[in-house]
Amino acid sequence: MKGVLLVNLGSPDSPSPKDVKKYLGEFLMDERVLDTNPIMRTILVKGIILNTRPKKSAEAYQKIWWKEGSPLVVISERFHKKVQKKSTIPVALGMRYGSMSIKEGYQKLKNQGVTEVLLIPLYPHYAMSSFETVVEKAYEVQRKFFSNMTTDILPAFYNKPDYIKVMTQNIEENLKDFKYDHILFSYHGIPERHILKSDTTKTHCKLDGSCCETSSKAHATCYRHQCFETTKEIAKLLKLETGSYSNSFQSRLGRDPWLKPYTDFEFERLPQEEDKKNLAVITPAFVADCLETLEEIAMEGEHQFKEGGGKTYKHIPCLNENEAWIDVMVNWIEEWKNKS
Prior knowledge:
By secondary structure, this protein is of the alpha/beta class. It has two domains: 2-157 and 323-337, 3-Layer(aba) Sandwich (Rossmann fold); 161-315, Rossmann fold (3-Layer(aba) Sandwich). It is 48% helix and 14% strand. The strands form two sheets. It has a four-stranded parallel beta sheet, with helices on both faces. A four-stranded parallel beta sheet has the order 6-5-7-8, with helices on both faces. Helix 5 (128-145) links the parallel strand 3 and strand 4 (150-153). Helix 6 packs across helix 8 (223-238). The mean pLDDT is 97.
């Protein structure tokens, strides 16, 4: 029997410093997130970060926390229920980090008689710190605890026409009554070294502005290329003029170089250097609103933009429980189910 496991990032159990510390510890000790050697990672995370960051992060979570719980988890649960209602096979939900584990997701499917699992990382783009770590963790769990089950993977869907279409529709719907002079596509940032590590050819990626436009099998695992392609395809459907939109990368951590340009720098640069005073921001790396979209972009981003001289600002919500997005997911599931 076939079944589906949807997996998103995860969240602390509460916005308290204690729960945030526990969550950050699991997240940052992941070797695909903080990819230093194990000793240095332990010193950095347990010796420094977990002694300083949880309080600040907890304050950020408190700004966006809902009565029902973490927005990311609540939205993911609602999405899961709606997908399950329209699907003809069992669908479970798990998180890469936190208490709603991938193992629990497999167990729920097993309890329903599932032996063949379609794993769907809820990340449109491939990155070692998101898509890859979900896949590897799922394989590890399945081999260790569910050896009688098999796992298939839905590839990154950053350029699937139906995904691009619902993204475009969501943007159009949210910009109906907003007069903008620029759209900023803000993607979650990753260290530049992750791009080089993910290059299966070991020679193609140079981060020089041209490699992402040159055809290569390296693009199958290149986060930077995939982000640019998403923007390009959405811009085509929206019929955006050159210069009326741009890309940036948010949420950097530490002092190592991350993908550029940085979103927070763009919030100041766009009104000051390009006279872009009316900004709309979309975050296509996320399918559900979370800390990075609700606090960093919707709240802090607006403050930074207006401090830099901007006038009006619009954060475009993620797809969340969008009915068209639910239908797209159900169609992907049904297509997989019907494969021989």
